[in-house]
Amino acid sequence: MQNKEAWKLYQRYVDGWKPISAEERKTLVAEVVAEDAKYITPQHVIGGRETMIEDMAAFQGKYPGGRFDVGDVSAHHDVALFTWVLVQADESVLVKGHDLIRISAEGKIAELITFAPSTSEP
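Request: output the structure for the sequence above.
Response:
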């Protein structure tokens, strides 16, 4: 997986966090996330597609009109590391963090691990 391919896949996933309908979100996740994907965040030891969709909807409840922008990517083999920023509806940046994705042979997200938010000091 090259950086450009990884970015395109991850950007499509990140689009699911934007203010879109529940049906659009479900369709988007099915398009880019493997059916048996693992989803690990500071709040979830492990989840899957449904947990992702629930988190996306909850995000819009907490940050109406908010979104995530991709900051950078580093990819090799079937793994990619991203920096993201949480942009609020007023365009202010709240926090930044990182996601690691593992990509399936079919080109979908097979595993996503979120590190959020990051800090500049320990």
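The mean pLDDT is 95.
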